[in-house]
Amino acid sequence: MSRTKTTFLSIVCLIITTSLYAAQPILPELAAEYHSSLSQMGIFMTLTFLGNGIAQVMVIPLADKYERRSLAQIFLLIGIFANLIMAFSASIQIAFLAGVLIGFYSCANMLILSFASGITESGKKGKVTASIMGGVLSGILLSRMISGSITELYSWRVVYLVIALCLIISTVGLFLFPKSQNESNEGIQYSKLLLSVIRLIRNERDLRKRMLSGMSSFLVFNFLWTGLTFLLSGTPFYFDSFTIGLFGLAGVTGILSSKKAGSLFDRGLGEKVLLYAWWVLGISWFVLMGASFFSSHSIIGAVILLVIGIVILDAAMQAQHITNQTFILSSHDKEESRALTAYMACNLLMGSVSNLITSLSYAYIQWIGICVISIGVCIINVFIQRKSKNAIN
User: Fold this and answer.
1) In the chain, where are the structural domains located?
2) Which stretches of 154-297 are DSSP H helices?
3) Could you tell me which of 110, 51, 61 has the C-alpha nearest to residue 86?
4) Are 30 and 95 in contact (CB under 8 A)?
């Protein structure tokens, strides 16, 4: 697959992810629009991620049964519909419905990843996976800035209108790609397709290892972004939500590391990438912990340390995430989507749990406690990764 087509797919995934996270920075505006409280609008995000979680489990395995390009286009059409409903919603109930649909269609990210993997030769899967997942992770990090800026300049409704327009272009653009071929799984029943996900988890030790690594990575990743909001909104920073969202720009630099990780995987160095990524993740948390101590002397110095820590952490996290996914895609020729379902479902579950843990415990353990726990998680995973024969070699 050409670099132009790979870039196009990564941009499509960035748009989808931005749609999924677009409401986070504009919840106050949504609450004012619907004459509701922030806690009520918080239900919107819960429903959105619930819809995404359901789709990850129930829809992604279908990519091993049906033609993937067409399947992705169907869900992009659902996304256009969902974002238009949100843009023109007149009540909070309609907004909630739109949120569920936005979360549901956002599984198209993984459909596109499976599609791209299926039409890419084996020696280039690492680079292609890195590029597409770079789009996904960039969407997570940039969504706050994009959504907040458009809302500030125009209206929150324009955010969803722009996303719908971009999705229309994306849907049409996919016709430039060849269809995928999934003949070997066409006859399998849907129930057996879902049950085979459990079979894969039970029978494949390597998949369980990737799942554990991914869950741990998402744990510390969400510790950062949830805990950072509490840290920067309180003393001595008192930053507003838009300023906090700007810190996501620092994480975008991690895209460079994800592309390098894909190239190293294609050279047979995937296990070593995982080992070194966990070392770097641990180092990044020491830097982030130092920012807390520094904040009492210089806010500017603390901010600099936070930015450095975010850059290092996101680079390592993306390298780790890309490598795990490329291992899965490369070792499951006819079952890529089901293996990805197992991996991503666990990551989403851990992401939700880590958000809850951080929200409930931050008042007691503060930023220092978050850093100490994250360092412990990194050390444990370094020891786990070192047991791999490939890592040692």
Assistant:
1) 1-181, 189-393
2) 156-173, 190-203, 205-233, 241-246, 248-252, 254-266, 270-294
3) 51
4) yes
- 67-100 pLDDT, tens per residue? 899 999 999 999 999 999 999 999 999 999 999 9
Q: How far apart (Å, rounded) are the C-alpha atoms in residues 340 and 211? A: 10
Residues 304 and 298: their CA atoms lie apart, in Å, by: 10
Topology match between the domains 1-181 and 189-393: yes
Q: Which two tokens stand for residue 59?
A: 């829809």
Q: How many CB atoms lie within 10 A of CB 201?
A: 18
Cα angle, residue 225 at apex, residues 342 and 254 outer, rounded to 5°: 75
User: Would you say 334 and 201 are in contact if contact means Cβ atoms under 8 Å apart?
Assistant: no
Measured at the alpha carbon of residue 322, what is the angle toward residues 72 and 355, in degrees to the nearest 5?
Answer: 85
In a 10 Å sphere around its CB, with 0-12 CB exposed, 13-18 middle and 19+ buried, how is residue 281 labelled?
A: buried
Q: What is the model's pLDDT at position 289?
A: 95
CB 129 within 8 A of CB 262: yes
> What superfamily does domain 189-393 belong to in CATH?
MFS general substrate transporter like domains (1.20.1250.20)
pTM as predicted? 0.78
Q: What CATH topology corresponds to 1-181?
A: Growth Hormone; Chain: A; (1.20.1250)
Report the mean per-residue pLDDT for the chain.
Answer: 86
- Intervals of the chain under pLDDT 70: 38-39, 181-187, 241, 254-262, 333, 352, 355, 388-393
